[in-house]
Amino acid sequence: MRPAAPGGADIANLLDRFERRIAATPPGMCPLAVQAAYLEACATQTCGKCVPCRDGLPQLATLARKVMMCEADDDDFEMMRMLATAIRDTADCAIGYDAAQAVIEGFKTFSEEYERHIADHACIDGIGQTLPCETLCPAHVDIPAYIAHVGAGDYAAAIETIRKDNPFPTACAFVCEHPCEQRCRRQIIDSPINIRGIKKFAVDQIATDKVPVPERLPDSGKKVAVIGAGPSGLTCAYYAALMGHKVTVFEMHDKLGGMMRYGIPSYRLPRERLDEDIRAVLSVGNIEVRTGARIDSASFAMIVEDYDAVYLSIGAHLGKKLGVDGVEAEGVLSAVELLAAVGDGEYPDFSGKKVAVVGGGNVAMDCARTALRAGADEVNIVYRRRKLDMPALDEEIESAMAEGIQLLELQAPARIEVDGDGRCVALVTQPQMIGPEKHGRPAPVPASKPEKRIPADVVLLAIGQDIDSNPFSVLEPDPRSKRFVVNDELRAMGFDNVFVGGDCQMGPSTVIKTIAAGKVAARNIDEYLGYHHKLPFDLIAPEPAQNNKVPTGRVNIAERPARERARDWLAVEEGMSLEEAIQECGRCLRCDHFGCGSLDEGRVQYV
Ligand SMILES: Cc1cc2nc3c(=O)[nH]c(=O)nc-3n(C[C@H](O)[C@H](O)[C@H](O)COP(=O)(O)OP(=O)(O)OC[C@H]3O[C@@H](n4cnc5c(N)ncnc54)[C@H](O)[C@@H]3O)c2cc1C
Ligand code: SF4
Ligand code: SF4
Predict the structure, then answer these.
(1) What 3-state class would DSSP assign to 154?
(2) How do residues 301-323 score in pLDDT, each as one tens digit?
């Protein structure tokens, strides 16, 4: 009888710990330290059969550690290069090959870090562990502080703390993709804190427009124009007005909010809740709003002339076209067209219809779920890659599936079948198979399988968004991407007083990234106008209790039952209970007080 594999379950436990530790790697680590640790882990995996891997990897790891400690010289580096190349080219299997390949790629990716460690015997400037959650929130919200306020039952203080860096606490509580949770240190013990969920609990206890905004600084006499009232434009307006500048917002729609109203469906972000944030933003005062004001090239020239500074944040509102036959047929719509109409209160009636949605991102999920709520009999999402390659968030895909939407993966649209009256009747697809990687992702290639006919009275195209940059061609947007080109200060090339940010500069992104851009723009506009205003903020976070290290499950936000919610427009998500919120807040390790956050300069002061 053979003995059982030594320590199977125990090793699995240790590996699980290891994985969680890696997941919690804080931003700001020296990449060469990570590389040295990676090589050491690789060396433990060698089977010992082939020499390059068995003997080479430990030697490579020793050299990598020497570089990391700033003790290596040029000869060591040359030796590292030769050794890595030899291992990559001669190791028998992936264990040796991939470890060496990672080092070779690192020579290029981290060339600056290598140079500093070897030439100057110093780690690169600015490298240092930072608070994971706060660093990874694009707006750098003081997360441990607001969690502590919620834990102490002071929800208004939590909202004030969030609003110091992000004037849309409610919108983000509902729809933020919460990058802040990715490296939360709590996952070393169990799983990341539900940071977005705690924010939702706070704004569910007290509406943001019931929490007074800070007082405006004295009037500066300067005039700032904001073009586009999405999250980015309104954020810039909020901070610029707080700094004492007179702001005018120009918006082509009748209502404010941009894609938060004309894109994201109300079952994910109820409009009355979005309005709470918008009312709070406008309550700063000194913000004039002109809706129904579509800015063209002539009015843009006048605005640039009349205002001391301009922030352009027009988003990406045009749907990308699909290059197949039949795309002009009646019943073929772009996702953004459909969702914008819904944002204006024009709900489509798809009763009894079959709907096909082309695309695999969050917008495709929103379209499909909107079609279902508009009465469609059947909704199919057609995606040319696999489910696991879909850019949509896992939770969005799961929610759509739970509501009864069918996903047809590995199907590329070939043409749209049209009847004699010019109406679409089916989407015909060419089945794909997944092939080798292109640009870091496995790419689909046509499979030798017959075409598939998917009956469809409506085809919704959710394959990307374009920027309508024509009215602003004087800013010379990139001819291919149509994005506006800016310098480090978000200033448009060739213009002193025009700043640009949000989706129209980054390409379609997320609410919180565009909020961050709006905040930076306001700060840079303030500097351009000759000021360096500091907005007062004197709230102090409650003292941390002793660190709670008892492994405890993460409280997730519950959703209404799929069968019930699939046919109405009411909010899908429910909130945490008080009991759940207190437990979740209690899991936060207060890394602002314990660990790197407590060190001198451990908390980076962001804009
Ligand atoms: C369907 C959908 C779902 C999404 N879901 C999420 C999500 O769950 N989470 C998330 O974080 N992000 C999500 N996003 C992305 C997010 O909404 C955007 O990244 C964000 O709104 C962009 O902000 P912005 O201010 O740059 O532009 P926008 O929000 O697009 O606002 C731009 C504003 O400018 C106005 N405008 C345009 N041209 C002119 C002009 N010439 N004159 C005057 N006004 C003009 C527009 O009407 C609009 O109000 C989603 C986007 C879509 C389309
Ligand atoms: S805004 Fe988003 S990224 Fe920032 S703290 Fe909130 S959930 Fe996290
Ligand atoms: S434990 Fe708390 S402070 Fe630490 S990273 Fe997570 S949310 Fe931030």
Answers:
(1) coil
(2) 999 999 999 999 999 999 998 99
Give percent of the chain above pLDDT 90.
90
- State how far the Cα of 381 lies from the Cα of 576, in Å rounded to an integer: 31
Pocket test for ligand 1, best of 226, 312, 314 (most atoms within 8 A of CB): 314
Taking the C-alpha atoms of residue 485 and residue 111, their distance in angstroms, rounded to an integer, is 27
Q: Report CA(592)–ligand 3 centroid distance (Å).
A: 8
Distance CA 499, CA 516 (A): 14
State pLDDT tens for residues 83-117: 999 999 999 999 999 999 999 999 999 999 999 99
Phi then psi for 564, rounded to 5 degrees?
-75, -45
Is 606's pLDDT higher than 60?
no
Q: Are 569 and 403 in contact (CB under 8 A)?
A: no
* Whole-number pLDDT of residue 3: 61
What six digits make up the tokens of 265?
């469906």
Asked if 372 and 567 touch (Cβ cutoff 8 Å), the reply is: yes
Ligand 1 pocket residue status of 319, Cβ below 6 Å: no
Q: What end-to-end distance do the CA atoms of the chain give, in Å?
A: 66
Whose C-alpha lies nearest to ligand 1, atom 21?
259
Return the H-helix or E-strand segment holding 112. helix 111-119
**Interior CA angle at 187 toward 387 and 540, to 5°?**
120
Closest to 404 measured CA to CA, from 382, 376, 427: 376
Ligand 3: residues within 6 Å at CB? 132-133, 143-144, 184-186, 193, 195, 588-591
Chain mean position to CA 382: 24
pLDDT digits (tens, 9 = 90+) for 535-564: 999 999 999 988 889 999 999 999 999 999
- 595 alpha carbon – ligand 3 mean position (Å): 11
> Would the pTM count as exceeding 0.70?
yes
What is the pLDDT averaged over residues 449-464?
Answer: 97
What is the reported pLDDT for 33? Answer: 93
